[in-house]
Design goal:
Elements lengths: L1 H52 L1 H38 L2 H37 L7 H30 L3 H24 L4 H27 L10 H25 L1 H10 L1 H25 L2 H11 L2 H38 L1 H22 L2 H9 L3 H26 L1 H15 L1 H13 L5 H11 L3
Helix pairs in contact: 1-2, 1-5, 1-9, 2-3, 2-4, 2-7, 2-9, 2-10, 3-4, 3-7, 4-6, 5-6, 7-14, 8-9, 8-14, 9-11, 9-12, 10-11, 10-13, 11-12, 11-13, 12-15, 13-16, 14-15
């Protein structure tokens, strides 16, 4: 009898591990698909849009997209807090804690999104008239497009909460499907409008509609998944204080990301003009696939490790981290090498031989830079999962400032290569995360009875 019960437990454990591996693989695949859909669409759309809009209008669209993405990235700083705490409460089996965190995060991001939108609306005339080198005939369209961008930015901040909640529940399929739909709508509408003779204003307005659609679909899916009576923002004082402790540092980290992840385009626009932004944006869009694929494919590690660590299974968290790290390094090095080797051929096939002459060296430099950043992805997620957000944020602020300072110093003399060099400096500094996550697991792990581990894993596996 004892042997049969032991054999049944072994079979149950093997079945559970197979389910976990399948779920992690599925989440990784949908995470990558979520990210790749936009670059894949832009591979087809960019040459047509450049031809129909002209390089300056296309560069203006990329500039506005960068501003919207920057605002969304700032909002996603508190979204990391949502992923961390919702995953932790899920690991503990506390559904009330999950709901409180969601409501508090909605309140925070609604206020943050509105603040950012109002700020962008107010500074639009200054940005168009003085900050960016935009031709006089494009001043009015640029201001109107930026006003639509302000609305899209506020919607994106709120949407980040719902998408973060689904990821925290380790449900990557629905958010990937929604993002694929909205990004397809954005690019297809841009193509249709440009072919019909419309300009950047109509394209940004259509993108704002797509953002509203994505927010609505995410909200409905979260409500159904958690069986919530309401998804309106609501203040929970204890939960708000808890989220703020984590979120304030992850918000600083997001600001550091904005300071460099999009500021290079803004600097190039200020120093070299909208035409250079168009060239650099296309090269960066190609090269950032390296970091994007690794980051999106590995994001499931964040909620997965947070759930294990929150339940007390530090040994299991470390084991999963080390496996993920190996795949992270192999993917980053492999993808960066491919882009360095085939950069000229890629740009020639994609944008034409003339564009390749201007962009090949830029793409190679950016491929190395994004490869260096991509090597740090799993360590970054692991530290967020175990609550080391303060260290991660301060390191990212430091690396962002160092990269931005390098770009400011080198762009006047090296042009777009100076911006790529700044990204390399940023990536090199973030490698400190390897040491930090190793130190955490060495200090915290200890022996745990196998029966207790099985009970914890069973609880973690419940959605």
């Amino acid at each position: 009898m004892a042997n049969s019960k032991r054999a049944a437990r072994v079979q149950d454990r093997k079945r559970y591990l197979r389910l976990i591996k399948h779920r992690n693989f599925t989440n990784s695949v949908f995470g990558v698909a979520d990210y790749l859909v936009l670059p894949a669409l832009m591979i087809v759309a960019a040459p047509i849009l450049v031809h129909r809009l002209g390089l300056e209008q296309f560069g203006l669209w990329m500039l506005i997209t960068s501003i919207i993405s920057s605002g969304g990235l700032i909002g996603s700083g508190f979204g990391d807090a949502a992923v961390h705490y919702i995953s932790t409460y899920r690991g503990r089996g506390d559904s009330a804690g999950v709901e409180r965190t969601l409501h508090s995060m909605l309140w925070i991001n609604a206020v943050l999104g509105a603040t950012l939108a109002i700020f962008l609306w107010i500074v639009t005339p200054i940005a168009v008239g003085s900050l960016f080198k935009i031709s006089g005939n494009l001043h009015v369209p640029a201001e109107t497009a930026l006003h639509f961008g302000a609305i899209a930015l506020s919607l994106k901040c709120i949407e980040n909460v719902f998408s973060g909640c689904l990821r925290a529940l380790e449900k990557y399929r629905p958010t990937a499907n929604i993002n694929i739909v909205t990004r397809t709508v954005t690019v297809v509408s841009a193509l249709a409008l440009s072919l019909s003779g419309f300009g950047v204003v109509a394209i940004v307005a259509a993108a704002t509609f797509a953002n509203a659609l994505g927010l609505t679909l995410h909200a409905l899916w979260v409500r159904r998944t958690l069986a919530l009576r309401t998804i309106c923002p609501r203040l929970h004082r204890d939960s708000l204080a808890e989220v703020a402790r984590f979120g304030s540092f992850s918000w600083l980290q997001a600001l550091a990301g904005v300071a460099f992840n999009h500021a290079d385009r803004l600097l190039i626009g200020a120093y070299l003009g909208a035409g250079a932004v168009g060239i650099y944006s296309i090269c960066a869009q190609a090269a950032q696939v390296i970091h994007g694929v690794v980051a999106s494919g590995s994001h499931f590690m964040f909620p997965h490790l947070a759930a294990h660590n929150g339940s007390g299974d530090v040994i299991g968290a470390e084991r999963r981290f080390r496996i993920g790290l190996v795949f992270n390094l192999l993917a980053a090095v492999g993808l960066a090498s491919m882009f360095v080797i085939f950069s000229h051929r890629l740009l020639s096939l994609w944008m034409g031989p003339e564009f390749a002459l201007q962009g090949t060296v830029v793409l190679r430099a950016l491929a190395v830079a994004y490869g260096m950043l991509a090597m740090n992805v799993v360590s970054h997620y692991a530290l967020l999962a175990v609550g080391e957000v303060r260290f991660v944020s301060l390191l990212n602020v430091t690396s962002g400032i160092a990269g931005l300072a390098t770009s400011v110093f080198l762009i006047p003399s090296l042009g777009m290569i100076g911006a790529a060099t700044g990204r390399m400096v940023q990536g090199l500094i973030t490698w400190v995360n390897f040491w930090r996550v190793h130190s955490y697991f060495v200090d915290r792990k200890g022996p745990m009875p196998q029966e207790e581990i099985r009970q914890l894993e069973t609880r973690i596996g419940m959605s």
